[in-house]
Amino acid sequence: LLPQVCAQLCRRPCYCPWVPPRCPRGSPLVLDGCGCCKICARRLGEPCDFLHVCDQSQGLVCDYSSASAGTGGTCNFEDDEEGCEVNGRVYRDGEVFQPSCKIQCHCLDGGFNCIPLCQEDVRLPTPDCPYPRRVEIPGKCCPEWICEAQDQHIPQAARAAPGAASPRLRFPCPEWGTEWSPCSATCGLGFATRVSNQNRYCRLETQRRLCMARPCPALPAAFP
């Protein structure tokens, strides 16, 4: 049967376009079913036939099981495994892959799950690094935190003279702080503490406030 199909569809000599076709991303140039002209390989789920072959590098074959008589098939995995197509590339079921250096994905049951490889942490201002900023580093995939100088955030007109009070900050300060601690005294006046950056310098500091859990009971009268 195959030689008869070849005789009907394949002509010799080959007559191919001078310029090869431009293929979509993830579809390589391959020889057609006659081994004559270069065409774009069909991807997972795309129609196929004797001439328009599937991408064998991805383990795809032309599946005629669900096609009616006289029609073409559909590109599918040879062993009928489910796969994932991401950015024009097909991954096998169970395969782990990285579409970019920042995420890692796992193909499973026709879908895929991804996890980030870069930490999404938040760095708050500290006394040794009052102005943290996250930047892209050339040659590195994940952005990193750097500490900038104070002069880069305070305009020239706002800088204080020596001995003068420091001006208020001119950049957003994300609010952060711990809960107030229990009162230091079980009765009467005491104090509670917390760590917060809600101050004019946006720096972490220990803050205190007066508190009273309950009044202290009256002392018993002294006996003579």
From TrEMBL:
Keyword entries, A-Z: Cell adhesion, Disulfide bond, Secreted, Signal
Keyword match Signal: yes
Coiled coil: none
SMART domains: IB, TSP1, VWC
Gene Ontology molecular function, alphabetical: heparin binding; integrin binding
Gene Ontology BP, a term: cell adhesion
Ranges where the VWFC domain occurs: 82-148
Principal place of residence: secreted
Record's GO cellular component terms: extracellular matrix; extracellular space; nucleus
Ranges for domain IGFBP N-terminal: 2-78
InterPro entries to which the protein is assigned, alphabetical: CCN, Growth_fac_rcpt_cys_sf, IGFBP-like, Insulin_GF-bd_Cys-rich_CS, TSP1_CCN, TSP1_rpt, TSP1_rpt_sf, VWF_dom
Residue ranges crossing the lipid bilayer per the database entry: none
Compartments where located: Secreted
Protein family according to the UniProt entry: Belongs to the CCN family.
Protein purpose: May play an important role in modulating bone turnover. Promotes the adhesion of osteoblast cells and inhibits the binding of fibrinogen to integrin receptors. In addition, inhibits osteocalcin production.
Listed PANTHER family: CCN FAMILY MEMBER 5, CONNECTIVE TISSUE GROWTH FACTOR-RELATED
Name recorded for this polypeptide: CCN family member 5
Lineage, highest ranks first: Eukaryota, Metazoa, Chordata, Craniata, Vertebrata
Gene that specifies this protein: Wisp2
